[in-house]
Amino acid sequence: MEAPMEAEGFILWHARDDADVDEAVAEIRELAERSEAQAEAMERLPAAPYPQASVPRDGFAYKAVQRRGVRALYLRAVRRQIEYYFSDKNLKQDWFFQEKILEAPEPEWLEMRWLLSCPRIQDVHCASLQDVLEALGPSTLKVKACHGTHWVRRKKPLPQLKESRPAKGQEPEWYVRLHAVADAEGAAADVPSAEVVPAEAAGIAPAAEEDGLRGLPPPKAP
User: Fold this and answer.
1) What beta strand segments (E) does the chain contain?
2) Where are the domains of the chain?
3) 5-46+59-201, which class in CATH?
4) Residues 82 and 121: beta-carbon distance below 8 Å
5) What are the pLDDT digits (tens) for 118-157?
6) Assessment of whether the complete model's pTM goes beyond 0.70
7) What is the Rg, in whole angstroms, of the alpha carbon atoms belonging to the chain?
8) Cβ distance 117 to 195 under 8 Å?
């Protein structure tokens, strides 16, 4: 793993790949078991007749590693969810994202605000722009910033759509509401919409696998 750095009041731990995350989890478990064993040993000791100097224990190390591990697991869940949105499986039926990816002024790139306004990114993971940018660090997806706006794209061409776009005037209600909000916002950069977005809003796209981390919030400041 890369060295942690202080940002926004808590530790950010950069995991390069899933092996790094698994390593962090194993370290957390080892320290937790060691801390429990030490606590049991201390309880078995007879009470001293005089005050004892405090002895450093692994509790602080365990908490530090735990924060790193939780952050790494959280970022992996966010990354996997976004990678699912850009997968062939989703884009073959997600006409909304396909439409946005092909839009000017950046064809083949999806503006970040559409990802940030997805229910599973905005409501379940409570992910900020910084969280998403960090989560996509080890991803094969490309990220760029242009005039204060962030964009994401996949390397492969878009797959052929299997779900046709509804005729104009027959779009689902969530699509009409979303575009009403987008029109009001104009060209504001990286402003997450309060409305639901793409195919998952219409009940098409399932949630990505998250290793049991559904709803896991970002780690708070110690």
Assistant:
1) 5-7, 10-12, 110-111, 142-146, 149-153
2) 5-46+59-201
3) mainly alpha
4) yes
5) 888 988 889 999 999 999 999 999 999 998 999 999 999 9
6) no
7) 22
8) yes
